[in-house]
Amino acid sequence: MRAFFAQDGERSVRVANDSRAPRRARAVWLLALMPLAWGAAPPTPETIAGQLRDAALAGHDVAYSWVSELTTRFGPRPAGSDNEHRAAEWAAARLKALGFDNVHIETFPITAWSRGSESAQLIAPISQPLVIAALGESPPTPAAGLEGDVVIFPTLAALKAAPAGSLSGKIAMVANRTVRTQDGAGYSAAVGARGDGPHEAAAHGAIAFLLRSVGTDSHRLAHTGTTRYTDGRVPVPAFALAAPDAEQLERIAALGETPRVRLFSSASYDANAHSQNVIADIKGAKRPQEIVLLAAHLDSWDQGTGAIDDGTGTAIMVAAAKLIRDLPHRPQRTVRVVLFGSEEIAQPNAPFGDFGGHSYADKHLAELPNHVLAGESDLGTERVYSLTLPPAVAKGDFADSARRVLTPLGVLFARRGEGDFGADVEPAIKAGVPGVALAQDATRYFDIHHTSDDTLDKVDRAQLDQNVAAWAALTWLAADGDLDFRSHGAAIPEPSDE
Amino acid sequence: MRAFFAQDGERSVRVANDSRAPRRARAVWLLALMPLAWGAAPPTPETIAGQLRDAALAGHDVAYSWVSELTTRFGPRPAGSDNEHRAAEWAAARLKALGFDNVHIETFPITAWSRGSESAQLIAPISQPLVIAALGESPPTPAAGLEGDVVIFPTLAALKAAPAGSLSGKIAMVANRTVRTQDGAGYSAAVGARGDGPHEAAAHGAIAFLLRSVGTDSHRLAHTGTTRYTDGRVPVPAFALAAPDAEQLERIAALGETPRVRLFSSASYDANAHSQNVIADIKGAKRPQEIVLLAAHLDSWDQGTGAIDDGTGTAIMVAAAKLIRDLPHRPQRTVRVVLFGSEEIAQPNAPFGDFGGHSYADKHLAELPNHVLAGESDLGTERVYSLTLPPAVAKGDFADSARRVLTPLGVLFARRGEGDFGADVEPAIKAGVPGVALAQDATRYFDIHHTSDDTLDKVDRAQLDQNVAAWAALTWLAADGDLDFRSHGAAIPEPSDE
């Protein structure tokens, strides 16, 4: 344990002085610098969880160097790309070097998608370059591009309500805004148009689909993201438009002019690609067959370098597990880190998406009854502010212990369960594995999410460390015990009236 | 005058509640709502200047609607483009409709530059798209693009000091950071590499030049801007790199790898283009030959829509002059608004740059001795915080009056003169016209300057109105009097020891 505390004194001072760190966390961290008498009485799981938390806050260096190397050495890591494959090999080698057990790569087939070149130009009433990004799985335009007048709908519902055939030869645009929220509810409310827009546009005769980016920023950066296949195909080329560009088209229309746009994309598919999950364990000392699963994804969108989506998630989970790995004794249960592949892109056939998660659940079906708990980190670099426990343990000794350990980090207990634990673990959770959520503050996440702006400079080291602290502490509490997280209720929490 | 106060009560409330508006300005504005007895005693110039200020703060609508229409109807307005020509015609028509005198367009020849298509890709040690923007006047690459290993220099001085021929076949990169400052000094310190970099790179054998964007943001947006011609040409293709991309190349180099980059540009020149200045007067009642010159530029860079550079400058000057135009009587001197063309791009032959400014000074050479004062608005949309008067009037009744009128807007008096009054008025000021500067807060300006992000959504209406207030008030004080701004000292202030 002491090795944690010896390193990087200067860094520790910085974190300690950070005004964002809750006051009590700083005090606890200072206490943690005091010598601990390991030999005297066996420390409780809660004591060790607190020490893990404080070691992470003191500036454990694994997380930032992981995300820095990952994004610098491999850049963008779209599912099925060479960069993604090489990143997985690097991750496996690095996890072995960090001392993890059972490190291996599990490969699975996917249909990959490549952006190629793309461009957009307003051609009437004036000439202006437009900032777009093809939605994931969008088909290419004809080689000469395509042109059409743009018909703007405020919402997807308005597009759905358009008269049949009324968009023939035109480009349908949905201009819905994304509301900035702490919990990501604004994103959830807006993202439906990204999945269903191309189908609805085509069903009304449109030759292409434009979407105001699902994002909360006001930069000339378009937010990509997967759309969905209908009957094995995306029917028309589909693009996200940067927010200022969407507003420009709206203003032009408000002046009584019809915006006319030229679109070009050379996107392509590869039905014979593959992706992979990287698996690494800390083998449990007493019940190694019981698994606490920590998930994040290694693939990324192609325009940025996937720093906050989800380089930081992989860094947080690896760093949290590494803190546990370096303890003088192992937890009773196995802690498993899975770095998933192909989280971002949809697939043309059932189960359609989140393919790394499905592949894992399929390949480890026999093990799933022994997966005692699963959690995922996939919401960037900002601090954890809320914990949702499985309903079976939402009250009782475990919750009390977790509360004492996590409250100094500025973590609230959610008053009701959230249904969404993350795309990677969703297949396992649907198969009955209890899910746990440490919700990150998403207020600024959707400024950057799925844009070229997702790069290392956006990573806040102090908040990254707070995430590592929360996951390390919570994971230890779950792994170094024998609590059955599914014994007292359903795995997926039901809404309450509270 | 009263017409100012009747309009848009809701807007006035918003401004009055804006915490950024200085407390005293709000109080003064409320007083201004009281009926004024025009017939009683003739108001002093200072009284009228205060009323103009308060009318602008109350939400005079010309400025925002000007910049909104300009950027929506004409989008990007690169010098010599159809968009720039059409914007000038629109501006002249609008100025006539607003009641200005002597509205006309003065055309002049330029060499124009078009960006065409461009792209950049990191091709070793990994594949990654890079965000670049050709610097203005950069020549194209060969049609197949060009490729080279990147040699990174921390500063232009380090590039200059490289051994002769040491960059043969390579791409030279200067990675200098731009320091964030309120007065723009960080920009001035960094921008030299944009002008001299291509020449220095070529002189050392490099095949292209890359520059970390001269900007203070951390987005995947490259800051273009003009480089300069040497002996009539820019010797190698030259590009700005977005800050995160520059840092990625630096990190790759720090890992011991050599970044290799492919660059493509189809930029082109047109030696037979033209641009134009738009001129509009409020003819003086007593000494119409004496001119107070208000300057801004209509042209813009090509990736954004030139909202803050310099759509807002044109809006501020037009709106300030329009407030004066709508007074019940005219000022003694003529107030002239000139909306310059071709401010942004360099020219291959002497005098090399700021061609609208030179064209004006040439065409109006005989009038320049009667230009009593010249000021320019070309630093975006943020509030004015500092006034620099000509040394001749830096103390005395005029300065005292200006101080009383502008202090409630949160404007300081500069303790020493600034040499830079703006590129458009520089030729006139070099010919002896006294310059006045209302410095805007540039803390955030260079986040957006010369990027695709320069769009209408970045315009802050309350701060825009504060600029209009300051220019309207100051212009009235200068125009409705007979003070000789050059009588007591040199036109260009000398540094003091203060």
Neighbour order of strands in the largest sheet of chain A: 1-10-12-11-13-16-14-15
Specify the number of helices of chain A. Answer: 16
Characterize the biggest β-sheet of chain A.
8 strands, mixed
This entry's quaternary arrangement is: homodimer
Overall mean confidence score, pLDDT of chain A: 90
Helix content of chain A: 25-40%
Number of strands of chain A: 16
Helix-strand makeup class of chain A: alpha/beta
Outline the low-pLDDT stretches of chain A.
1-38, 489-498
The global form of chain A is elongated
Question: What's the Cα radius of gyration of chain A?
Answer: 24 Å
Q: How far apart, in Å, are the first and last alpha carbons of chain A?
A: 42 Å
What would you say this structure looks like, in words?
- The structure is a homodimer of 498-residue chains.
- By secondary structure, chain A is of the alpha/beta class.
- Helix content of chain A is 34%, strand content 21%.
- Chain A is built from 16 helices and 16 strands.
- Chain A has helices spanning 2-6, 9-17, 23-32, 45-57, 62-74, 82-97, 156-160, 185-190, 192-203, 243-254, 307-325, 355-363, 397-406, 426-430, 445-448, 461-479, and strands at residues 101-114, 118-124, 128-130, 132-134, 146-153, 171-174, 208-212, 238-241, 260-265, 268-282, 287-297, 333-340, 371-376, 384-388, 412-413, 435-440.
- In chain A, the strands form 2 sheets. An 8-stranded mixed β-sheet of chain A has the order 1-10-12-11-13-16-14-15, sandwiched between helices. An 8-stranded mixed β-sheet of chain A has the order 3-2-9-5-6-7-8-4, with helices on both faces.
- In chain A, helix 7 links the parallel strand 5 and strand 6 (171-174).
- In chain A, helix 11 crosses helix 16 (461-479).
- Chain A is elongated and about 80 Å long.
- Chain A starts with a helix and ends in a 19-residue tail after the last helix.
- The model of chain A is unreliable at 1-38 and 489-498 (pLDDT under 50).
- The interface between A and B is large, with 42 and 42 residues.
